[in-house]
Write a structure and sequence with these properties.
The protein is built from 2 helices and no strands. It is mainly alpha-helical and 25 residues long. Helix 1 packs across helix 2. The protein is elongated and about 25 Å long.
Amino acid sequence: MLQKNQKKIPHLYSLGLKKNNKKNI
């Protein structure tokens, strides 16, 4: 399921990961 969403909106997915990484660090 995550892979399908990633293919649909890769830029949004990467942006979300970057935001999550900043919050985690």
